[in-house]
DNA sequence: GTCCATACCTAGGCAACCTAGGTATAGCCG
DNA sequence: CGGCTATACCTAGGTTGCCTAGGTATGGAC
């Protein structure tokens, strides 16, 4: 299943809750936390992280090779704000779809 | 706000609950039911309806000009099934995102 | 009789994501 | 040792899905 325009929210959420992490581990974390639903290819995640860094939402640094070279990403304060904003947007999106689906589709959670 | 890959579900849901309807009215219904969030351009909706018809999920017929010529769309039984399937997929998607967002993000509705 | 709303349509653009391929090292197993 | 798999990074270019921008035509209001 693809992420349907919500990739940034997912990445920022993992970084916010899980602390600094490198790309490969981020992919694994996303797979685990979504119970296997979001098993994103590297070609999706790495370019996205580079873009988020260009936008100032994350920063990265190279870790010395123990046991491998790794690029570790962390949220900036802009990133934390963006995460909150995107989560609000997500809720609003879900609520919009739910209301189109009809009352039988169930309420939106608190 | 765009529909993030869930256009078909939205269209099928309106057609399923609101009965046969023509394109322009479908756009209005979607706008109303989403409280203004989904105000889709005609260039999104008309091609999508044509595609759904090619796929056998809807059928259309021209209504005699009272007061205008209108192309009215209705769900086929395949369309009804697809709506259910896509709604299941939607729920599963929401649930996947929620679980990535963390317990604090609130449970998925019944 | 002009203007806006209704009602339909399509070609082409753009953004987001994925596919497919590449590099390099560590660790296991025979 | 020598091969294989897993880890870990990267990018060019294709595909998909929706939107932008433009077009046609009629009805009703003023």
TrEMBL record, chains A, B:
<dbReference type="InterPro" id="IPR005149">
    <property type="entry name" value="Tscrpt_reg_PadR_N"/>
</dbReference>
<feature type="domain" description="Transcription regulator PadR N-terminal">
    <location>
        <begin position="11"/>
        <end position="82"/>
    </location>
</feature>
<protein>
    <submittedName>
        <fullName>PadR family transcriptional regulator</fullName>
    </submittedName>
</protein>
<dbReference type="InterPro" id="IPR052509">
    <property type="entry name" value="Metal_resp_DNA-bind_regulator"/>
</dbReference>
<dbReference type="InterPro" id="IPR036390">
    <property type="entry name" value="WH_DNA-bd_sf"/>
</dbReference>
<dbReference type="Pfam" id="PF03551">
    <property type="entry name" value="PadR"/>
</dbReference>
<dbReference type="InterPro" id="IPR036388">
    <property type="entry name" value="WH-like_DNA-bd_sf"/>
</dbReference>
């Amino acid at each position: 299943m693809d992420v349907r325009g919500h990739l940034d929210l997912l990445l920022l959420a993992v970084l916010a809750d899980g602390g600094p992490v490198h790309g490969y581990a981020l992919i694994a974390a996303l797979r685990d936390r979504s119970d296997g639903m979001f098993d994103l290819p590297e070609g999706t995640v790495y370019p996205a992280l580079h873009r988020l860094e260009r936008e100032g939402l994350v920063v990265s640094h190279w870790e010395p090779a123990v046991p491998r070279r790794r690029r570790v990403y962390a949220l900036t304060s802009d990133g934390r704000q963006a995460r909150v904003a995107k989560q609000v947007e997500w809720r609003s999106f879900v609520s919009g779809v739910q209301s189109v689906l009809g009352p039988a589709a169930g309420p939106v959670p608190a």
